[in-house]
Please model this.
Amino acid sequence: MSTRRLRSEDYNDYSSTEATPDGSPPEAINSFASPSSYQRFGESNGTTWFQTLIHLVKGNIGTGLLGLPLAVKNAGIVLGPLSLLVMGIAAVHCMGILVKCAHHFCNKYQRPFVDYGDAVMYGLEATPSAWLRTHAIWGRYIVGFFLILTQLGFCCVYFVFLADNLKQVISAANGTTNDCHSNKTTVLTPTMDSRLFILSLLPFLVLLVYIQNLKFLSIFSMLANLAMLSSLLMINWYIITGIPDPSNLPLIAGWKTYPLFFGTAIFAFEGIGVVLPLENKMKNPRHFSVILYVGMAIVTFLYISLGTLGYLRFGASIQASITLNLPDCWLYQSVKLLYSFGIFFTYALQFYVPAEIIVPGAVSQVPERWALWVNLLLRTCLVCVTCLLAILIPRLDIVISLVGSVSSSALALIIPPLLEITTYYSEGIHPVTIAKDVLISVLGFAGFVVGTYESLWALATPPISNTTHALVQ
Model:
């Protein structure tokens, strides 16, 4: 696999890059492919329709899923699920736009693969504006910038998530029991500040990102997926077995907190970077559009169900990650550790793309004898940057909303509709399509501005400190 291709990929799907099983889509999926649709021969050792579906679902599920119950709280028990549904439809539609435009440019320029940055660059080259055509290369730079920003933002979130969960497990160690149904309140043992927990994780994550072999990383990816899947099953079981009367929950939350909902929700739905690489790895890529809509329908259902049920279960006491609401018994303490184990190794996969964009260019500027040292130094510096940002913003809910508002909204909602306009404007595009694309981009930009402002405002507001932790609400 070429470095150029890797630079545009979301590494959530890297564990599938070496898969070579046999299989083909069933007739039900074949029937959706139009003879006039874009046709491309896939890789002979590419992934099957089922593997692609699994990796698409996996590539969209991470820490953002665990923060959705708080997002629903910020929107309201009725407005929250409805907004998640609308957000899911818009995000999937934008993914479909990206795939369609990439197909258009593959056909136009007779290329086997066009990544996100290429598509935006070619889209600007196709515009009537001479200035945009002259500066089309900036389309690739802008996408690369937001990819770096988004992925390093994910890494910051992982630092805070790991620190919060480890701190809670250690703080409640003396009060941890085998009784997961107790209604008593446990007084937490004082421990060091969460920022010190973040700092203590730094050397381990630095060593982890020194692993640069994708085949070796795919082993850790598989272990991480198993750990997080087991944890999610146990979390869902706990939620559905104790939902109280929801009549006291607000149907619609205050407008001040809704921008925080937007940031968290778009953070969860920001899987657009995985779309084109997955389509490129398929044996039969012409069937990808159907797999995209089926897979994202599953993801949207999981998001709405966990977000809604999690808020119903814990109500106003819901925390930034639903794992922090689990009782302090050994069973659910192990769930926190299992999910933390999965997130720890996922850090290296999320780190891969910004490293592949930044490191090779810098290494090429130094003598070969210094290449390895410069490589390791840059990786260390990038991890230290994410650690420093996590220390400066040690509140998980705020950092998720901020990353989602600043970077995820651009990649998932703002750029794809504009790409469709620039791609097809010279060839003729219906005014309704232009109006639809402009509306999505404007709403995405509004969410970007207001969500970023509210996240920074919430960050400047001191959080309410609780000295006790309820086992079961």
About this structure: Strands lie at 185-187, 468-470. The longest helix spans residues 137-171. The chain has a mean pLDDT of 81.
